[in-house]
Structure formats: structure tokens, C-alpha cells
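Quick one: C-alpha cells for this chain, please?
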Amino acid sequence: MTIFELQLYIAETEKNPALYQEHEFDKRIEAIDFIDFQVLGRIDELLPGTDQPDQLILLRNRAEKIKAKLEEIDVNLFQQLQQTIKAAGYTTNGFKNLVNEYVDTSSEETGYDNLDIFINGLSPLQTMPEQTRDLEPEMVYYQKTPARIVFELAEKTHFVKEDIFFDIGAGLGQVAILVHLLTGIPTRGIELEPAFCDYAGDCAAALCLPDVIFTNVDAREADYSEGTVFFMFTPFRGEIMQEVLAILKKESLQRKIKIITYGPCTARVALESWLYFATPEDDNMYKLAVFNSY
């Protein structure tokens, strides 16, 4: 971008009323990203070689002011929405309808996008805790499940009110919290890392979600006796996975259960003879797979 183009973009952004409306979250995020990476980045590139530093410094100040104002709108928005969630006690479509007011949840794209940014903003705790435990060789480092995958899970699983959902390897708790908000069913998170488990529990408590419970325990030692639907985003592999699947197999002798997988663990779970695909088989490991017990 030239200095003229920078001036033009900053002026247009300052005068764009849509960016300052709470419901235009998508447009605001795109504008913030563009200011960060294109405008401010380009100004920093131009400054060392220009004979007009004062002009560029003025443009940078204007761009930073716009960015700060847009970010403040989102901070206030998320504070309001957190209060709404605490008061509303969402079930079924209420929470999804709320999110749809700000971000389109109907896209079939996978991966991380503006929906993840929006869901992250709803968390009452914004600082991710440091991991305190060393992982065993077969354990997989925590990575958030894309929010669109959780929305898809809630829509396609056809939960009933008697279901109790377990997220095995719950991390910071996003899956268990979202599934509860989207369906109203009780959810449980099993998480080995104490700092992650505390964070998840504090988020659920801050949002007044008593039916979302996190337990700091090794997945091989957890109590799954009340669970009917189990989710795994490849929290571990190898012998640990075999042990956990053996535990879940025993649970399936007491009642029918579902196992929902995402990531590389799908291929391993598909080998279990006591399970069958409830969704079409797909070679893409980053598609949700649902298995029912016989």
C-alpha cells in the first residue's frame, strides 16, 4: 500500500458506520486484522525510508485509534453476552440463535475462523494457563477443537434429554461448555492437566453452568458410568488409547453408547469390533465420525 492508499483506507474505515454496530462482528474482526497486518505493518515498513515520517506517524496514530475503538466495542459486547448467558440458562436453539446474530454458524468450512474468535471472546477468562505436567509419550499436546466442529457435533448427534456427554481430554473446557449451551444436556470434561481443568471449571462457574463439570483425572482412571456420549479429539494414541477404549467397551455392556471422534484417532476407533459407523465413512480424519455400540 502507498501512503495515499493508507490515507484512503483509514479515512474510509473511520467513516464506516457498520463497523461500529455491535452486530457487525465479522466486519469488525476483518477490519481489525487488516489494520494490524496491512496498515500498521506497512507503515512500519515505510517509516525507515521516508522523508515524510510525521505524515506516517500521524497515520499510524489514527489507525491505532480506530483499532482500539473497534476492540473496545467487542470487549463491551462480550461482557454483555456473558451476563446474558449467566441469566438465560440456554437450551436447544437459544444459544445458537444468539451466536447467529453476530457470526454465521451455517458455513460448512472446517478449521479455525471468526466463529472461534467469537467463542473465545465469550470466555470469562482470557489468559490461557501454563501447562504444569509433563505428558507421557503417547499423550497429545492440547489443541482446541474448532468451534464449527462442536456446532456440527451438537446438530448431528441427536441428543436426548437423558444423555450425558463426556469430553475425554477436555483441555480448557470449550467443547463441554459449548455442547451444554447448544443442547442443554449435562456435560463432563476429563482432563489430566490440573491448570487446564481448573481453568475450565472456573469458566463454567463464571457462566453459572452447574451441569458442566470437569474432573482432573487420568482418562484411564476416570468414572464413565453415567456417560452415554463420549468425544475425543485425539487426546492420546497407542496403548493409552487401547486402554481407554477397553474401558468404554465395558461401559457399552451396560447401555448403548456413542463415541464421536475428530482427528487421527478416528482410524483407530474404527477398528473396534464392538462399534459401528453411524455416519458415512470418510478418509478425511478432520471430519466428525460418530460410532454406536452394538
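Residues 46 and 129 are 37 Å apart (CA to CA).
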